[in-house]
Amino acid sequence: FGLYVVDDATPDSQVQCSSSYTPSTNIPPTRTALCTITASNADGPIRSVVSAFTVDNTGDTSTGSLSSLTDLGDGQSFRFTFTHANPGKLQIQVTVSANGTAHNITDSPFVMFALGQPDATSSLSCNSGLNPPQSVPASPPGSVLCVIQVSDPSGVNKGHSAQFSTYLYGAGSITSLVTNDDGATFEFYYMATGGAAVVNISVNVLYVDPIANSPLQLIATAEPSAHSTILCDSGNNPTTNMPVGASSACVLTALDSDLKPQYAVAEDFDIVLSTLDFGSMTTPTTSDNGKTFQFSFDSSAAGSTLCIVNLTSTNTSISQSPQVLHSTSQPNLDSSILCKSRQYPVANVPFGEVATCAITVNNTDGTNRGLASDFVAYLDMGSVGTIDGLATYDEGQTFVFVYTPPEDPGVANISVTLGGTHITGSPFGMNATAGCAIFTDTGAVSQCTIMEQPAHVVRPVEWRRPWSVIIPLDETRTIDTISFRLTASIAIFTGGPKELMLYLNDIPLGTVQVSQEAGHELEGEDFVLTYTIAHYPGLAATLVGTDKATLKVACSSFGRWVNL
User: What is the rounded end-to-end Cα distance, in angstroms, of the chain?
Assistant: First the structure.
């Protein structure tokens, strides 16, 4: 009959418990956890006896009961069980005695949870870490982390993986449940391996009841095209401008190659400002799962910047990018008003025609831009005619409006004020004339006669060649010379144009004297006379991107301006 002399077990001994579920520290209702003690001392495993160990539950004792400790037959391993009775937290403490003092062995106390029954108040959330969080690119395939937050009426709020069932409806795949916090949450991933698609993730508790937020829609997105658009609007006149401290609302629309709206993530786009000196952008948000994104430019100082939007993958600019953004300060009283008709003097305008008025904006800081709302334009009391609203064609550097005279002659004083004070040139006097009446400097009225012109006189002006100027982005190009030709019959009848009126985008830029007659040649029945307009510093156009400017020229003939 063999006997063993045993060593004294020390705190180097170890206890491990498992419920055989995931996680193994959680015990479902009515189930049992199995615990094993391995006897050891400082030199390693040893033989010992049951009486060397004391086992107790120092946690919630209502959670269940512990069995007796038994030897597995080798004198080295000892076993006991815990049987679940009520939900709660238990702490299985195993001690050995040394010098009359109890000492915890390794991993004691061992914490376990007697589970309640998770219910439909458990919740599902998924987040790709992108914007929006329920979307992920399909190429290359991305992933979305989904989390089940466990909840049960007992308040333990922990579970095991078998209590939840996950389902995918649509293309792609999902991974198995794992937990990193003892079953308080379970994580799994949706993998966008099936291409662009709209899918639904469903999680049920005990196979039947969907938990909160289940099913949850996820979107695997395709890459948007360069047809995607960006538009910023300050809500002012012009929409490119905003006072310092105000904002411009921008909308980014994701489009596919067929110009149809599509789902995207904000990370598909690289959104930057050309300079950060005058404001900043907010983080894009979406209310339609990524078909459009909204953000704003918040101005902080007077100046101009560009909102540039490119596709992140190719660095390709999208449609309508860049968007021009001007932060404007309050214009000053050096801003000026000038009105012109096509008559001479320019302050005279007959019934049937109009005069164009231009407000030139001046700011103390030199930005020289403003808003239509900065100015109040009106006709003084007793004035005849009407004026329309302010418009701008150069992003708030100039505002134009039209004065329309009545049928009967009269006088109109056009006032433009800034904060209740007249700007330079205000009020501006206009004369509504009858027919071709001209008011002279002395106030006398003279009449002009409109001669009947032969039909061949109205032949159109022929440009020497199609005229165009390509102007690099944001560069100001001054037009130095304009050449044109007139048929001899027109030149003879008019005596040759001595003065021309120039318009850019229908905004009058002033008159220019013809300074050189370059020559003439015989072409058919008529002589072709060539005139050159000398350098005119006031005529300059700033073109942005692919915008176009239209130049119009009129000549003075018998007291009237005639468009060429």
Answer: 130
Q: Which residue, among 118, 290, 281, has the nearest Cα to 198 in the 3D structure?
A: 290
Number of domains in the chain: 5
As a three-state string, the secondary structure of 388-399 is CCCECCCCCCEE
Q: In 129-139, which positions are buried (b, 16+ CB within 10 angstroms) versus exposed (e)?
A: ebbbebbbbbe
Rg (CA), the chain: 43
Q: What is the pLDDT of residue 352?
A: 80
pLDDT attached to residue 183: 95
Q: Is residue 431 scored above 70 in pLDDT?
A: yes
Residue 186 lies in a domain: yes
Q: For residue range 387-417, what is the model confidence (pLDDT) as tens digits?
A: 999 999 899 999 999 999 998 889 999 999 9
3-class state of residue 522 by DSSP = strand
Q: Distance of alpha carbon 296 from its chain centroid, rounded?
A: 7
Q: Model confidence over 323-348: pLDDT tens digits?
A: 999 999 999 999 999 998 877 677 88
**pLDDT score recorded for residue 134:** 96
| One domain for residues 109 and 191 | no
- Cβ burial 252-270 (10 Å sphere, 16+ → b, else e): bbbbbeeeeebbbbbebbe
CB atoms within 10 A of CB 2: 3
- What is the sign of the dihedral through the CA atoms of 389, 393, 399 and 401? negative
Q: Give the number of other CB atoms < 10 A from CB of residue 181.
A: 11
Domain containing 134: what range?
Answer: 123-221
- For residue 374 the two structure tokens come to 């900065």
User: For residue 8, is it within any domain?
Assistant: no
2 located within any domain: no
**CATH number of 553's domain:** 2.60.40
293 and 241 part of one domain: yes
The partner residues of 355 in beta bridges, in order of sequence, read 403
Contacts of 288 (CB under 8 A, 6+ apart): none
Same domain as 241, residue 298: yes
For residue 107, the domain's CATH number is 2.60.40.10
54 lies in the same domain as 129: no
Spatial distance between the Cα atoms of 204 and 208, rounded to a whole number of angstroms: 6
Decide if 496 contacts 532 (C-beta within 8 A). no
pTM of the model: 0.69
What is the dihedral angle through the alpha carbons of 3, 7, 10, 13, rounded to the nearest 10 degrees?
-50
CA distance 210 to 508: 71
User: How many other CB atoms are there within 10 angstroms of residue 272's CB atom?
Assistant: 14
CA dist., res. 162 & res. 150, Å (int): 13
SS3 542: strand
- pLDDT tens figures, 155-208: 999 999 999 999 999 999 999 999 999 999 999 999 999 999 999 999 999 888
Do 52 and 8 touch, CB atoms closer than 8 A? yes
Bridge partners of residue 217, in order along the sequence = 200
Please give the torsion angle defined by the CA atoms of residues 301, 303, 304 and 305, in that order, rounded to the nearest 10 degrees: -40
d(CA 93, CA 57): 6
